[in-house]
Amino acid sequence: MTSGTPTNGSHQRRALHLVFLGPPGAGKGTQAARLAQSAGIPHLSTGDMLRHALALATPTGLEAKQYMDRGELVPFPIILRLVRDKLQDPASARGWVLDGFPRNLEQARAFAEMLGELRREITRVLYFKVSDESVIRRLAGRRICRRCQSPYHLEFSPPKSEGICDRCGGELYQRSDDVEAAIRTRLRVYADETDPLVDFYRRAGVLAAIDGEQEIEGVKRAVDAAVAGASPRAG
Ligand code: AP5
Fold first, then answer.
1. How many CA atoms within 13 Å lie on the side-chain side of 89?
2. Low-confidence stretches of the chain (pLDDT beneath 70)
3. Closest CA to 94 of 182, 18, 178, 206
């Protein structure tokens, strides 16, 4: 992997291959959706892919549900197949924002191999640093649009009309893993499995740490600066 840092502020000119890393509820999905829209590239969220498969009641979705509801990682072969299909899709030719993958060292190593085969390199890994207290507060108040997956928060980012998505008019719901027991498991799984990737990508020279404790617009400015090519900061 090399840093392949963009040389100007435009997201439009060269392929951006971005990975968003951080604990559950850190704001990865919120920021990934915004950046993907402004850069005109797909937002590839493995969590959204799994929830979509579940909504369609596919065998993949039904198998994944038991793991997701408990807050555990879904078996790797399922994830690998989903990610590979998306990266090979022509819609990903100009870049992507990966959100929720890779999630442990096994996935990161397989991902590096996959990128080698596809002749792609990671542009930057954005690491969202947020405390456990903020995570719990954010996840407890999160609501998601059933139709377009847009995230809201009852306190920090409320919809204009209660229970209705501003963007598409879809119904807002609470995720089944945004309950106390599953949140605790997700935080433990993050610490054990995913947090080691911070060092992995720091050593690869592609990590940029983002202060995820700021309000949403402040985080967005930090994301834009990191993507526009500010030097990666030590996490
Ligand atoms: P996934 O859907 O990826 O969930 P996650 O990683 O736990 O992350 P979240 O979606 O909960 O949080 P986020 O960081 O995107 O926060 P958001 O922007 O929504 O994975 C779910 C499950 O799927 C996993 O547990 C696992 O079972 C399975 N899975 C997925 N990928 C896998 C993989 N690779 N391998 C194996 N299994 C996998 O923000 C949270 C809330 O805070 C929102 O309400 C938002 O409005 C609010 N908010 C956001 N930013 C701010 C801010 N700056 N200030 C205040 N509030 C904010």
1. 15
2. 1-13, 230-235
3. 18
CB distance 23 to ligand 1 below 6 Å: no
Q: Which residues contact 75 (CB under 8 A, 6 or more apart)?
A: 63, 67
The domain locations on the chain are: 10-42+89-132+188-227
- For domain 10-42+89-132+188-227, give its CATH number from 3.40.50.150, 3.40.50.450, 3.40.50.300, 3.40.50.1980: 3.40.50.300
CB 53 within 8 A of CB 61: yes
Contact 27, 212 (CB under 8 A): yes
Q: Could you tell me the distance, in angstroms and rounded to a whole number, from the CA of residue 183 to the centre of ligand 1? A: 10
User: Cis omega (within 30 of 0) on the bond before 77?
Assistant: no
pLDDT digits (tens, 9 = 90+) for 51-87: 999 999 999 999 999 999 999 999 999 999 999 999 9
pLDDT given for residue 14 in this prediction: 78
For residue 33, give the ligand 1 atom closest to its CA.
18
211 C-alpha to center of ligand 1: Å? 16
Which residue's alpha carbon is at the smallest distance from atom 25 of ligand 1?
A: 71
**Does any ligand 1 atom lie closer than 6 A to the CB of residue 144?**
no
* Ligand 1 and 73: CB distance under 6 A: yes
Half-sphere exposure of 212 (CA within 13 A, CB side): 27
Amino acid 13: pLDDT: 58
